[in-house]
Amino acid sequence: MQLYNKDYSEKTLQSIISLPHPTVQKFEVITVAVVGASRRFLSQITRHQNEVKFMSASLQYSNYDGKADFVIPYEILTAPEDVRDYYLENCQDDMDFYSFLTACGIDHDTAGYVTPQALRNILIISATPFQWKHMIGQRVCRRNTDEMQIVMLKIWKELYELSPVMFSVDQAGTFCQRGKCMEGKMSCGDSDISFLTPDLILDMYYPALKEAEHEDKAA
User: Fold this and answer.
1) Which sequence spans correspond to the domains of the chain?
2) Cα dist. 142→167, 189, 201 in Å?
3) pTM for this entry
4) pLDDT digits (tens, 9 = 90+) for 49-87
5) Tens digit of pLDDT for each residue in 110-139?
6) Which residues lie closer than 8 Å to 91 by C-beta, 6 or more apart?
């Protein structure tokens, strides 16, 4: 009982991580709520199925009529204002058609076929630490969409603060941070992030996010 009640040390965790097999890392799960990512992000991240569970807000039970919100991709966020406005206008046009269909008696699930991929969503992801590290390593890579990188960097940042040992750069970083790029000829060729933590990568690649957050708080 003394051993059972004994708290683990950082050294214990390092020993578990260094084992030649990851089985011990699969006895626990970490659940994360992602609020506001797009339905395109949903379609991409749910390709990870091994030891990962997802629960998403369903169009069948959701009514977005009159209160839809859209993800603005980073490249459009940093584009001229008229480009951002035209993008949001087109997203809203799709949702206006969605509202028209539901007003005609078409159910939300069927009307959802016209909704844009940018439509924001709520997603709960439950995965083992081992799988979180695999998803982060694969999805923080520059070969992914900006939104995917941003969301996964923010998740990694939270997990890194939870356990700097378990989710250190050499444990959970991109494959190039852990030794070797896996993209071959498709490599981005950027090796500047070798030792950077997720918050520093966010600041380096996506500086406009902080400006947008400050504007939202001011509003």
Assistant:
1) 59-114, 128-178+191-211
2) 19, 10, 11
3) 0.87
4) 888 999 998 877 777 776 779 999 999 999 999 999 999
5) 988 999 999 999 999 999 999 999 999 999
6) 68, 70, 116, 118, 119
Locate tokens 């590290």: which residue? 133
Helix (H) or strand (E) holding 34, with range, is: strand 30-38
- Tracing tokens 């939202």 back to the chain, one arrives at 216
User: Which element (helix H / strand E) includes 33?
Assistant: strand 30-38
- The closest alpha carbon to 160, from 131, 203, 198, belongs to 198
What is the amino acid identity at position 110? T
Instruction: Report the alpha-carbon distance of residue 156 to residue 137 in Å, rounded.
Output: 10
- Residue 51 is classified by DSSP as T
Token pair 């959970």 is found at 172
> What is the Cα–Cα distance from 140 to 152, expressed in whole angstroms?
6
Q: Please, what is the Cα angle at 162 between 156 and 167, to 5 degrees?
A: 50
**143 near 183, Cβ under 8 Å?**
yes
Token pair in block for residue 190: 């950027």
Query: Which residue type is seen at 24?
Result: V
